């Protein structure tokens, strides 16, 4: 094995970052917050099975909205001034 172990760890970490976060850190953060909130509610005894699907649906809706707005759009969908 010619690779330095630190390089292998960095490559492994970069792979997982790219796989989980990908192009949109907001989506990854929203899902992580949904998981954390669900886990927190379960820890205090709340039956919170419904929270994660609702969070994923909300994050998906926001992601589609941002994508439909396009990169050249500002708040409210208006074209950005150049």
H-E order: HHH
Structural class: mainly alpha
Q: What is the strand tally? A: 0
Instruction: State the helical fraction.
Output: 55-70%
How would you summarize this macromolecular structure in one to three sentences?
Helices cover 66% and strands 0% of the residues. The protein is mainly alpha-helical and 82 residues long.
Structure in words:
The protein is flat. It has 3 helices and no strands. The longest helix has 19 residues, at 25-43. The protein has helices at residues 5-20, 25-43, 51-69. The N and C termini lie far apart (53 Å). The chain is an all-alpha fold and 82 residues long. The model has no long low-confidence stretch (mean pLDDT 86).
Q: What does the secondary structure layout of this molecule look like, with pairings?
A:
Elements: H1 5-20, H2 25-43, H3 51-69
Helix pairs in contact: 2-3
Keywords for this structure?
mainly alpha; 0% strand; 82 residues; 3 helices; single chain
């Amino acid at each position: 094995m010619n690779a330095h172990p630190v390089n292998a760890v960095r490559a492994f970490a970069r792979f997982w970052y790219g796989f989980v976060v990908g192009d949109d850190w907001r989506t990854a953060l929203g899902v992580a917050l949904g998981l954390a909130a669900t886990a927190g509610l379960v820890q205090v005894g709340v039956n919170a099975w419904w929270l994660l699907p609702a969070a994923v649906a909300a994050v998906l809706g926001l992601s589609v909205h941002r994508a439909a707005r396009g990169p050249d759009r500002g708040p409210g969908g208006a074209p950005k001034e150049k």
